[in-house]
Amino acid sequence: MTTAVLREMRWWDIEPVLELEKDLFPEDAWSRGMFWSDLAHARGPGATRRYVVAEIPSETGGGVRIVGYGGLAAAGDVGDVQTIAVAREHWGTGLGAQILTELLRAATAFECAEVMLECRVDNVRAQKLYERFGFEAIGFRRGYYQPGNVDALVMRLNDPSTSVSAQGTEING
Fold it and tell me: Which of residues 23 and 27 earns the better pLDDT score?
């Protein structure tokens, strides 16, 4: 399988990201406006967001295809993983860890003392990834994911810089 390259997400990536979003999260997919809003805060001296996409060469020749993405928001000394997604055919390849590593590097650059996230209680695969990075479950948000009324597991990581250095994952691009 071709190794994915990570790069900053830009506005022109929203449409292909939405396609992946709708496939992976059919009940509670993010809207175009949600991505636009977060990307509006991802550049410049006052940036508080970091969004990345993972690309591979297109099978049809020429161009690239987005096979994953992730985003982090920072407020004060707290980072929040907004979203991480990996195309089904890339599950188990380490791409989720690669994206999470980049988001934790961003949290470190934003000087976040801790990073929070919510994860569906039924997404055990994602929970195992987060636990590998040192995230710990700290609570639940009942009915957080709508319209399916699925609970969210709230997880926290203290000192993201320690987790990133322990992972040692190489980021391309």
Answer: 23
75: nearest Cα among 117, 37, 110: 110
Q: Which residues contact 109 (CB under 8 A, 6 or more apart)?
A: 50
Q: Cβ atoms within 10 A of the Cβ of 9, count?
A: 23
Q: Is the pLDDT assigned to residue 172 strictly greater than 50?
A: no
Q: Round to whole Å and give the CA distance between 163 and 82.
A: 18
pLDDT the model gives residue 171: 36
**Residues counted in the chain:** 173
What was the pLDDT predicted at 164? 65
Using left for φ > 0, alpha for ψ between -120 and 50, and beta otherwise, residue 64 falls in beta
Nearest in space to 96 (alpha carbons), one of 72, 70, 65: 70
pLDDT tens digits for 91-137? 999 999 999 999 999 999 999 999 999 999 999 999 999 999 999 99
Q: In this model, does residue 140 exceed pLDDT 50?
A: yes
Do residues 50 and 171 touch, judged by C-beta distance below 8 A?
A: no
